């Protein structure tokens, strides 16, 4: 009986140690992810502020950011002030690699924001889709879910985001926010008159879009997981200002 009690006590101690190690590892990863993303974004912002405040050579700007951080896949920078998003975007060949690699191309559970492999890197397609993880610590695209709340949408800063690309800096007004189980048809690239109507008609929140929709419009869709498990996604559709 004494031996059994000792074994039970030992098993309990080992279980506690294992739990502490898991928690510690998660805390380490959280701060590692934040440190990498904050450092890279800060360096990009400093480069923009120092050299391009009055210039418009955006192609060279992106090239300089690539050189500075050592990543030739960088194609743009996304800023969404209302959601505290300030991150670089990379192009992807398979929609898989950047799910688990940071901008230093090291393993990371947070991955990196990346453009759909079917889109052109100049964001000139009718719709371009950017993917990012919904992290438990609130980083990456986790804050997109805030836009599902009508009170949040109606108050505070504007529901807009900007993209700094190789061809310029563009502002997008959020016109639809949905939770869906997407198919390839939901992440369209080319013009489809029914796509934007469906997105707006089924938006979870009410958003203003006073302009007429045409085939010459440009949209950017931000997509992330709705839950840690499951196939449903939160998608935020932004329309570029002319």
Question: Main sheet: which strands, in order across?
Answer: 1-2-3-4-7-8-6-5
Q: Output the helix-strand order.
A: HHEEEEHEEHEE
Proportion of helical residues? 25-40%
- Given the structure, what is the number of helices? 4
Unreliable runs: 20-25
> Biggest sheet, open or closed, and with what strands and sense?
8 strands, mixed, barrel
Please tell me what the overall shape is.
Answer: globular
Q: Report the radius of gyration as a whole number of Å.
A: 21 Å
Mean pLDDT: 84
As a percent range, the share of strand residues is 15-25%
Q: How many strand segments?
A: 8
Query: First CA to last CA: what distance?
Result: 79 Å
Estimated structural class: alpha+beta
Q: Could you explain the architecture of this structure?
A:
The chain has an eight-stranded mixed barrel with strand order 1-2-3-4-7-8-6-5. It has helices at 2-51, 58-69, 150-154, 193-201; strands spanning 74-80, 85-91, 113-115, 127-131, 160-165, 169-180, 219-225, 233-240. It contains four helices and eight strands. With 242 residues, it is α+β, with helices and mostly antiparallel strands. Mean pLDDT is 84; it is low at 20-25. Helix content is 31%, strand content 23%. It starts with a helix and ends with a strand. A hairpin with a 3-residue loop joins strand 5 (160-165) and strand 6 (169-180).
């Amino acid at each position: 009986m004494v031996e059994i009690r000792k074994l039970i006590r030992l098993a309990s101690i080992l279980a506690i140690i294992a739990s502490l190690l898991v928690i510690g590892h998660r805390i380490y990863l959280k701060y590692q992810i934040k440190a990498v993303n904050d450092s890279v974004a800060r360096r990009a912002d400093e480069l923009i502020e120092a050299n391009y405040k009055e210039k418009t050579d955006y192609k060279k700007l992106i090239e300089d950011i690539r050189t500075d951080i050592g990543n030739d896949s960088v194609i743009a920078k996304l800023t969404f002030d209302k959601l505290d998003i300030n991150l670089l975007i990379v192009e992807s060949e398979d929609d898989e690699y950047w799910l688990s690699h940071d901008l230093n191309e090291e393993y990371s559970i947070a991955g990196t924001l990346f453009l759909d492999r079917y889109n052109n890197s100049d964001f000139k397609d009718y719709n371009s889709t950017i993917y990012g993880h919904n992290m438990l610590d609130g980083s990456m695209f986790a804050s997109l879910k805030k836009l599902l709340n009508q009170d949040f949408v109606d108050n505070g800063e504007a529901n807009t985001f900007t993209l700094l690309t190789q061809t310029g800096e563009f502002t997008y007004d959020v016109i639809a926010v949905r939770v869906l189980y997407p198919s390839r048809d939901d992440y369209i690239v080319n013009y489809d008159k029914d796509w934007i109507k469906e997105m707006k008609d089924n938006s979870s929140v009410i958003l203003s879009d006073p302009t007429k929709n045409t085939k010459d419009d440009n949209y950017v869709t931000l997509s992330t997981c709705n839950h840690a498990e499951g196939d449903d996604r939160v998608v935020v559709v932004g329309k570029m200002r002319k």
